[in-house]
Write a structure and sequence with these properties.
alpha+beta, about 40% helix, about 350 residues
Length: about 350
């Protein structure tokens, strides 16, 4: 009996994931909660797998199936084989769109020790390698970065608000922005575009970030006992999560009114194993899941973390998805091609 009880904690983690996180009502579990549960379960079962190399048994077998369940229940995180492209073409033909959190192009525009890490010419060469780009959506931008992008990269039409901006080769049929009520610098810009004779509604969103480094510095600098600092830290995380869910609800309500097929992209600041991710993935196609490869990491400094997305209306046909290698920001850019 004692030997039969040993695997139960491992089986319990799989059961929690299978019966809890997948079926949970949309938006009920904060991203930080599902993220923590996922990481803890993965570490626990990973430890049991390593331990099982020397002492294999029933626990090891259940740990294997638990790890499979972890990645099966969060399909957006699954490792996918790299797509095969023809040697003569880097990207498939069609309408090209690129989304990039620029981090204000600090590596290009903000000198350190008297010089910048990159020049704008470096950035231009990268953008040329990503062509054709009919629509460019950027987050965390300002006039210092968007003005040279518009002028130097030949985008005749651009529009933005609070750090999000849409650049287009074609004129805007309609344009606007979504105002998030909570006190935030986050925003969403949208535009209706006629691309190759077909009308699309493009949304470029930047949702609330945890800003963990700032929260840690602020919470643990308070002149109070440690347990109060921890409580402040957790409270700030939960408040951030609540604001992000409110922003997502506002965004989805606006999208429901679109009379055209929707292309939604940007920095959502949630991983693909959060309930907020499923708010979008249940209604739209996740471009990475259709055509991506590998883990799809988009945040440079955390291996495997994907928080930037392209979501597409079901009637849009995706022909290509790429996570591009560029070190101008703390994010990697993502690019798609769709059929006209």
């Amino acid at each position: 009996m004692k030997h039969l009880l040993k695997p139960l904690p491992t089986a319990a983690t799989a059961a929690i994931l299978l019966t809890g996180l997948w079926w949970v009502p949309t938006g009920e579990i904060p991203a930080v909660g599902s993220m923590a549960l996922f990481v803890l379960c993965l570490l626990y079962n990973g430890f049991l797998l390593i331990r099982g190399l020397t002492r294999p048994g029933l626990t090891t077998i259940i740990a294997v199936f638990s790890v499979i369940a972890l990645f099966g229940i969060f399909p957006g995180l699954m490792v996918r084989p790299a797509p095969v492209r023809p040697a003569e073409s880097r990207f498939s033909s069609g309408i090209g769109l690129l989304s990039y959190n620029l981090n204000y192009l600090r590596s290009v525009l903000v000198p350190e020790a008297g010089k910048t890490e990159f020049t704008f010419e470096d950035f231009k060469k990268f953008m040329a390698s990503a062509e054709p780009v009919d629509v460019l959506c950027v987050q965390e931008t300002s006039s210092a970065s968007y003005v040279p992008i518009a002028h130097e990269l030949g985008f005749a039409h651009y529009f933005g608000n609070h750090g999000t901006m849409i650049f287009s080769r074609e004129p805007f049929m309609e344009k606007g922005f979504i105002s998030f009520e909570s006190p935030t610098e986050n925003s969403c810009t949208w535009a209706t575009l006629q691309l190759n004779g077909r009308l699309f509604r493009v949304y470029n969103a930047h949702l609330e970030s945890y800003n963990l480094s700032g929260i840690v510095r602020w919470s643990f600098a308070l002149p109070v006992p440690v347990h109060f600092r921890l409580a402040s830290f957790v409270q700030t995380l939960l408040q951030t999560d609540r604001r992000r869910r409110e922003q997502a609800a506002t965004l989805l309500a606006h999208i429901q009114q679109s009379p055209y097929p929707v292309i939604l992209c940007g920095d959502f600041n949630v991983p693909p194993f959060s309930s907020l991710y499923f708010c979008f993935a249940r209604q739209f196609q996740d471009a990475f899941r259709l055509k991506g490869g590998g883990f799809g990491q988009t945040f440079r400094f955390i291996p495997g973390l994907r928080i930037d997305y392209f979501f597409l209306s079901p009637e849009i046909t995706l022909t290509d998805y790429s996570r591009l290698k560029a070190d101008f920001s703390d994010h990697y850019p993502i690019r798609i091609s769709i059929q006209p």
